[in-house]
TrEMBL record:
Gene3D superfamilies: GIY-YIG endonuclease (3.40.1440.10), Ribonuclease H-like superfamily/Ribonuclease H (3.30.420.10). DNA polymerase III is a complex, multichain enzyme responsible for most of the replicative synthesis in bacteria. The epsilon subunit contain the editing function and is a proofreading 3'-5' exonuclease. DNA polymerase III contains a core (composed of alpha, epsilon and theta chains) that associates with a tau subunit. This core dimerizes to form the POLIII' complex. PolIII' associates with the gamma complex (composed of gamma, delta, delta', psi and chi chains) and with the beta chain to form the complete DNA polymerase III complex. PANTHER family: DNA POLYMERASE III SUBUNIT EPSILON. CDD domains: DEDDh, GIY-YIG_UvrC_Cho. Residues 195-273 form the GIY-YIG domain. This is DNA polymerase III subunit epsilon. The lineage of its organism: Bacteria, Pseudomonadati, Bacteroidota, Flavobacteriia, Flavobacteriales. InterPro entries: DnaQ, GIY-YIG_endonuc, GIY-YIG_endonuc_sf, GIY-YIG_UvrC_Cho, Ribonucl_H, RNaseH-like_sf, RNaseH_sf. GO terms for molecular function: 3'-5' exonuclease activity; DNA binding; DNA-directed DNA polymerase activity. One of its GO terms (biological process) is nucleotide-excision repair. One of its GO terms (cellular component) is cytosol. Pfam families: GIY-YIG (PF01541), RNase_T (PF00929).
């Protein structure tokens, strides 16, 4: 049995809005066997544009029950049924949120009549409920009212089942997150994604990059974006804008991390917020006081080039500094920390200078890190004078790794606080190889 549902709401996002009308049509797959319709008092004012769209005014819901009073009936109607709606995630998210608000735990298998219509009746100009009703000559007596829209969606479901019941059952039985996919994304695009490391690009209808991410398993990571029932406004808007997904396989997480950072900074997608601001806002610096004693301190890092270590926050920088002081047995007060010790200034100076000398040697290192590459290739990160010089791939079986070979096969080069942090982490975990200079 199917429960075809439509809700009218105070707005488009369940995190901030409430249901004002519920319409449910119970169907056996060929005909409607039961109907339910109720206005709901949302406990807030209905915006004027919603009244203009639906015809439901504040006067209409003044004497209507709150959702809590109809929750038991809604729950009983939906329990054990396949939840069907036109753009199913919208209605499902609102109903689930309303039921949870009054203590009901509920979930259901879902079917989307938009997605099914695209699959079974391809090539139509539009798949909105109104346009599908017009195309199939279904009369909707009261558009944008819950029960009328639910009944219209039920009629469309009946046509879909009659035309290709196998496809409907296939979509229903796929336990692969299809019903969670963005409404405009072809399910075949999702199902054909590789389960390998790489960088993925979520695209708009015009092919513009909306979001760029990296993954050890591209398909699994993208699936995680689409799971859950959050009705947060920005997320719901983003999901509605996704029409396609492209990807580049990198063969390893190390290359994916650096390639992602480059691509985000190259395209600046609107839904990648983190890298639009300096990531490493704080850093450790070294300086000499008036007596020539070397000191350490935590300072703002954005516009400084003498930063020894970069950090996301002041607290993490302070924690690193505390650990360094204990490890090297430095004088805390000469290292920007608040406690005293019996470490002599001469010993502090000797130990800190030795550490700074070692850091200088590390900053002059040259070589490359090797990783698995995509297909039959080897990936690498090129390092010159201790700095990041780009990523690339070469064919398997290369016997002589020369600097010119590595530079010729670079994918790109860029510098950023994030790239420096990634490189430092990779250097700690992977052996450095030397290249021949020709």
């Amino acid at each position: 049995m199917f429960a075809i549902v439509d809700v009218e709401t105070t707005g488009g996002y369940s995190d901030n809005h409430r249901v004002i009308e519920v319409g449910i049509a119970i169907s056996d797959g060929t005909q409607i066997t039961e109907r339910f319709n109720a206005l709901v008092n949302p406990g807030r004012t209905i915006p004027a544009h919603i009244t203009q769209l639906t015809g439901i005014s504040n006067a209409d819901i003044e004497g209507a029950p709150p959702f809590s009073e109809i929750a038991a009936k809604v729950y009983d109607l939906l329990q054990g049924q396949v939840f069907v709606a036109h753009n199913v995630n919208f209605d499902f998210t609102f109903i689930k949120r309303e039921l949870e608000e009054v203590g009901y735990t509920w979930n259901a298998k879902k079917l989307c009549t938009v997605r099914l219509s695209r699959k079974i009746f391809p090539g139509l100009k539009s798949y909105s409920l109104g346009n599908l009703a017009s195309h199939f000559q279904i009369v909707n007596p009261n558009p944008h009212r819950a029960l009328a829209d639910a009944e219209t969606a039920a009629d469309i479901l009946h046509l879909l089942l009659k035309e290709d019941e196998t496809e409907v059952n296939s979509q229903l039985n796929k336990n692969r997150g299809t019903s969670q996919l963005p409404i405009h994304l072809d399910a075949n695009v999702f199902h054909s994604l590789p389960e390998t490391p790489g960088v993925y690009y979520m695209k708009s209808e015009k092919g513009e990059n909306l979001y760029i991410g990296k993954a050890i398993n591209i398909k699994q990571r993208i699936s995680q974006h689409f799971t859950g029932s959050s009705g947060e406004k920005r997320r719901q808007r983003w999901l509605r804008e996704i029409h396609d997904i492209k990807y580049i396989e990198t063969g390893s997480e190390g290359l994916a991390l650096l390639h992602e950072d480059h691509e985000i900074r190259h395209y600046w997608p609107p839904y990648n917020a983190a890298q639009k601001h300096p990531v490493a806002k704080w850093g450790i610096v070294s300086y000499k006081d008036r007596k020539g004693v070397p000191r350490l301190a935590v300072q703002r890092a954005e516009k400084r080039i003498d930063i020894l270590e970069h950090f996301y926050s002041f607290t993490s920088a302070q924690q690193f500094l505390g650990e360094l002081v204990r490890e090297l047995e430095l004088h805390p007060k000469l290292s920007g920390l608040g406690w005293d010790s019996d470490v002599e200034i001469e010993l502090h100076t000797e130990r800190l200078n030795a550490w700074l000398d070692q850091r200088k040697k590390e900053s002059e290192v040259n070589g490359y890190l090797k990783f698995d590459g995509p297909d039959a290739s080897v990936g690498y990160v090129l390092i010159e004078n201790g700095g990041y010089s780009g990523i690339g791939t070469v064919s398997l079986g290369i016997e002589k790794w020369t600097l010119s070979l590595l530079k010729e096969n670079l994918w790109h080069y860029h510098e950023s606080p994030t790239a420096r942090q990634i490189l430092n982490a990779l250097l700690r975990d992977h052996p450095l190889h030397s290249f021949d200079i020709e």
